[in-house]
Known about the structure:
Oligomer: single chain
Helix content: over 70%
Largest sheet: none
Shape: elongated
Amino acid sequence: MNKNNNRLIESFTAVGGLLLLFGAAVYITGWTYAPYFYLVGSLMFAAGQFADRYMGDDRIVKRLRFQQVLGALFLVLTAFLMFSDDLHARLLEDASLGGSLHSLLVGITRRNNWIVTLSIGAVFELYSSFRLDRILKEQD
Length: 140
């Protein structure tokens, strides 16, 4: 890839990252359009991650790139979980659990299931980006 394509991918990924950060931060307030901002941002971020290729032979860099792609997939999954709050509650309503355990599970997980996938994706992205930067600097 040439430098212009790399800059385009980096800027696309950066704008997507800002949108998904904004969407996640504002979602907590209950704003109706926050999941849409997050969805667009996560799709842009994931597209940037998918488009960024590594053509070398280093197994560590390939593993870290796979972790970045996996993290991007978790971030996209988070967007769909933001839209699934009502579905989540309906699935738990049909459970054959006792009344108090059922209400505890609904109370704990309702509107918070997206936080788990967001956290997993963020850890994958952060770890792999710092490690990739260090390894690629050592190779140069």
